[in-house]
Protein 1
Amino acid sequence: MNLISAFAIFFIIWWVVLFTTLPLGVRSQVEDDDVTLGTEHGAPTRPALLRKMLLTTAISLVLFGLFYLVTVTLGYGVDDIPRIVPRFD
C-alpha cells in the first residue's frame, strides 16, 4: 500500500468516526436552560470539538491499524469475502 492510498483510507475512516463521535456528550441550550436569543434552541452549548477531534483521531488510528494488519500483514482483501449471491453463469 503506497502512502497516498494509506492517507486516503485513513481520511475516510477519520470522517466516518468523526460523524459517529459528534453527538457524544452534547447538551442543547434547552437542556442547560441557557437559550441565547436569535439562536436555535437545539444548538449545543459546549460542543467540545477539540476533544472530539482528538478522540476521533485516536479511534481512527486504531481502526486504520487493524485495517493495515488485516490487508497488508495478513494479506486479506476484498476478493477474500465470500459470495452472498451465487453466480448464474
Note: The chain is about 50% helix and 0% strand.
Protein 2
Amino acid sequence: MTQPDPGITLSDQAYGGTSWNVVGHTYTPKLHTENAMIWHAVIPADTFVPPHIHPTQDEWIVMLEGNLEVEIDGELHKAGPGDTVRMPRGIVHGIFNRSGQTATCVFGVAPSRKIFALFGALDRVTDPAELARISAEHEVDFLPPPDAG
C-alpha cells in the first residue's frame, strides 16, 4: 500500500471499516499508506497514553475540541483547539487528558510502519504489561512505570 485510494473517508466512517478502543480512547483510521497513517481520536477525560517512544516514526496531533497536556522529552505542553503538537521520532512523549472534558483530535504518524497492526492488536487490551509487550513488537516502546517507593 504505497498510495491512498482516491476519495473521501467521511466523518462517520473509518478507512478500512474498523475502529479500535486503545487505552480507553476510540481511534478511527482515516488514511493508511506505508508513508503515513492518520486517525481521529476521542480521548475521554482522565485518560492518557503513558510515556513512550516511536523510534521509527514522527507523530503529530491536530486538536479539534477540548484540551490535552502533552509531555515531550520531560517538558509539559498544553494544546487546545486548532493547535498542532509535534512529536519527532526518538523523543519520549505522553498524552494526558486532565481537562475534565472529552477531547477530540486527529493523530498522524509517518511513516506508518506497524501502527495500523498495533492498534488492531491493542484493541481492548487493558493489562499494562501486555500493552507494553505488544507495542514493543510493533516498534513503540513504553517506558517502565516509575518506582512506587
Note: The first helix runs from residue 115 to 122.
Protein 3
Amino acid sequence: MAHRQQIWILLALPLVVGISHAATAGDLIIPLSCDIGRTCFIQNYVDIDDSPSAKDYMCGTLTYDGHNGVDFRLTSHGGRQNPVHVVVAAEGTVLRTRDGLADNPVKGDRRDAAKGNECGNGVVVRHSGDRETQYCHMAKDSILVKAGDTVRAGQVLGAVGMSGLTEYPHLHFIVRREGKVIDPFGTGLIPGACGNHTESEWTDDARVRLTYSPRAVLNFGFATEAVTNDMIEVDAVSQRKLTTKSEALVVYVRTIGLKTGDDQSLTLRDPDGRIIAEKGPVAVAQNQAQTILFIGKKRSTEPWPGGVYSATYIVGRNGAPMLNQVFRHDLR
C-alpha cells in the first residue's frame, strides 16, 4: 500500500509576550540562519539574577544560574548535509577563533570532559563601542574566518554544531561590553529589572522575530516506536517510515519551558475520530528545560486503517490553555 508522509499543524496558540515598538533599536541581527519558532528556538536567555536563583529578562524560567548568553537551539541536528549557518551579528573584526574540537554531546555525568573548552569551536568578533560577540559550540572544521578578518553583518562564520559543553545542537551567543556580559534583550536599566526593556542590542526586525514565548513545542510527529531525545536530535524518527503494517502507531511531542503547576495532555484519534490512545492531564512537578510526552497503540493482527490520524496536545495552567496544538498524519 502506498505511503504518504504528511504532517499538518492545525492550531498553535502559544502564550507570547509582545514587545514595545517604541523601544530603542540596536544593530545586532539574529546570529544564525534558521526560522525562529519553526526550525530553531531560544532555549535559554541570560540569567539576570545575581543570587543563586535564576530568571530571564522577563522574570521567566528560560535560563539557569550563571548563564551568560542566549542559546539558539535547533529542533534537530542536520549535520554536514544540512548545516545551519552561524552568521556575524554586526560589522566588526575577528579577534580569535578555535576549531578542530569534535562534535560530541556531553551528558551530565561527563561534564569534566569539556573542562577548559566549554565554548567548543567558536569565534569572537570585536565591534565598535568596545563591544564583543562570541559564538560557541560550532561544528568541527566549519569555521570560515581567521583572526584579523573584517566581517560584515550576515557573513557566514561557520555552522552550528555540538562541540564543547553542550547536550544538544545550539549556538551559545554572548554579548560583552567593556569585557562584561550584557543581556542583548535589555540594556541600560537597573540590574535584575524584568520586562520589555526600552533599550535593546537587537535591530527592530530581530526584536519582532525574537518575541518572548515562555513555552514552545520544539518537535512533534508520528512514529513507529517509543521516542527518545537522542532519536529526535539526529532526526531518526522521520527516517523510520510509518505504514499501515507498522507494529505500533505512536505520537510524540517535545516541549521546552514547561513550568511547575502546568499540566499536559495528549490524545490520538483514528480517521473516524475515535480515541485510540490518550494520556493526561499530567501535572508538571517542577520547571522543565525540556520534556517528551508520547502515547501509542500496538497494531492488532489487521493493518491500520488508512486515512488521517490526528493528535491533540494541550498544556494548561489553572484551567487556562497555555499551548493548544493539533497535528495530523495521512496514512495511506
Note: The first strand starts at residue 7 and ends at 12.
